[in-house]
């Protein structure tokens, strides 16, 4: 492996330097190697760096540890992906705080057309298991890449269902690739490597400590087009992932459940506060993501000349003012309620007038 990788690993290990700061340093200095060769007083002048961060960059000799890591990667056939590499997940590249370096065990194409992350409680119910399997199986016609976190419960169910149906799947770890956590998932991990990959941004000897998992969750949220929350309590990792996904402008879906069920409370809350779309079946995701099957698209496009009522005309007029308009902006400018606007847009889509786009964005169809 190249000398460049030595510097890439080293910059990812500097204490207190995360993805945002590392990318800023690389950009200002003109390359990752240049960061370590730059004088301290120059680093101090970079906006947002200051004395403390400049001391961290110049005050640690991390190259011996980086060499040890490279030896592990070579010995175990692990592929490093730097954020400027063409094979680095492009969706994650667009996240400001995405990791500068990923470690990949397995052979998977991250930049496929459709990627779905599935998360939820470790204590899933039979209802959650049934729905998780149903939703993953619904992704088969789309040949989607299924991402989760290798934990008990929902994560394991998502991975296993993907494997059983010949879908590639990715397990995102909250520790280094020198171990598997939980240990009982050793066999599952091996199967994932053979039909996808395990990935992490943590170096070896990093323990699966509690504080690592929110950091892991940002990869799950950023690497995909949509996040599906199967079951979740009112607090926990699944809700952290959903909130991060919202901040990345990813579509979030949540499976509703009975108000008395503790592991439906988190999902119900996400839906109630409009941080997630309700999902009962795969068609709900297909509609929002504009992933309808080909025959459904043809049915919509057959009607080229339609009559619109006054309210529908008002929505269409708003869409004529811009090529793509966010749902919240349509609500604000139309004066209609959230639910009424949703109903009008749905009717317009059925008439072939409006086309939904990922991120709750709408535009007029090419036929209107």
Quickly describe the structure.
This protein has 368 residues and is an alpha/beta fold.
Predict the CATH topology of the largest domain: Rossmann fold
The number of helical elements comes to: 18
Instruction: Extract low-pLDDT stretches.
Output: 294-304
Instruction: Kindly state the number of beta strands.
Output: 12
Query: Outline, from the CA principal axes?
Result: globular
User: How many domain regions?
Assistant: 3
> What share of the residues does DSSP label as strand, in percent?
5-15%
Helix content: 40-55%
Termini gap: 55 Å
> Strand order, biggest sheet?
1-2-6-5-4-3-7-8-9
CATH architecture of the largest domain: 3-Layer(aba) Sandwich
| CA-atom Rg in angstroms | 23 Å
CATH class of the largest domain: Alpha Beta
* Topology as a string of helices (H) and strands (E): HHHHHHEHEEHEHEHEHEHEHEHHHEHHEE
Structural class call reads alpha/beta
Walk me through the structure:
It contains 18 helices and twelve strands. The chain is of the alpha/beta class. The chain has three domains: 71 residues, DNA polymerase, domain 1; 184 residues, Rossmann fold, CATH 3.40.50.450; 71 residues, Winged helix-like DNA-binding domain superfamily/Winged helix DNA-binding domain (Arc Repressor Mutant, subunit A, Orthogonal Bundle), CATH 1.10.10. β7, α12 and β8 form a beta-alpha-beta unit. α1 packs across α6, α8 packs parallel to α9 and α11 packs across α12. About 3% of the residues have low confidence.
């Amino acid at each position: 492996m190249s000398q460049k990788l030595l510097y890439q690993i080293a910059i990812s290990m500097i204490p207190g330097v995360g993805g945002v700061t590392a990318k800023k340093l690389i950009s200002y200095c003109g390359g990752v190697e240049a960061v370590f060769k730059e004088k301290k007083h120059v680093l101090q002048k970079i906006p947002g760096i200051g004395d403390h961060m400049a001391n961290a960059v110049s005050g640690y000799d991390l190259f011996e540890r980086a060499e040890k890591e490279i030896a592990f990667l070579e010995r175990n056939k692990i592929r490093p992906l730097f954020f400027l590499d063409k094979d680095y997940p492009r969706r994650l590249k667009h996240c400001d705080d995405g990791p500068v370096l990923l470690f990949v065990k397995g052979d998977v194409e991250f930049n496929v057309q459709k990627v779905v992350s599935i998360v939820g409680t470790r204590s899933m119910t039979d209802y959650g298991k049934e729905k998780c399997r149903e939703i993953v199986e619904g992704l088969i016609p789309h040949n989607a890449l299924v991402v989760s976190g290798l934990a008990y419960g929902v994560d394991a169910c998502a991975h296993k269902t993907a494997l059983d149906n010949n879908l590639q799947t990715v397990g995102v770890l909250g520790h280094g690739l020198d171990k598997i956590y939980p240990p009982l998932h050793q066999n599952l991990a091996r199967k994932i490597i053979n039909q996808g990959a395990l990935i992490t941004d943590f170096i070896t000897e990093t323990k699966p400590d509690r504080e690592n998992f929110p950091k892991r969750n940002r990869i799950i949220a950023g690497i995909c087009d949509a996040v599906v929350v199967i079951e979740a309590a009112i607090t926990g990792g699944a809700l952290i992932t959903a909130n991060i996904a919202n901040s990345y402008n990813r579509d979030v879906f949540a499976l509703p459940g009975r108000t008395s069920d503790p592991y439906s409370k988190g999902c119900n809350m996400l839906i109630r506060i409009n941080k997630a779309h309700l999902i009962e079946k795969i068609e709900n995701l297909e509609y929002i993501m504009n992933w309808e099957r080909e025959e459904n698209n043809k049915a919509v496009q057959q009607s080229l000349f339609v009559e619109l009522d006054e309210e529908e005309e008002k929505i269409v007029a708003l869409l004529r003012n811009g090529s793509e308009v966010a749902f919240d902006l349509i609500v604000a400018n139309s004066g209609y309620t959230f639910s009424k606007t949703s109903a009008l847009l749905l009717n317009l889509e059925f008439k072939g007038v409006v086309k939904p786009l990922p991120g709750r964005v709408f535009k007029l169809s090419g036929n209107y």
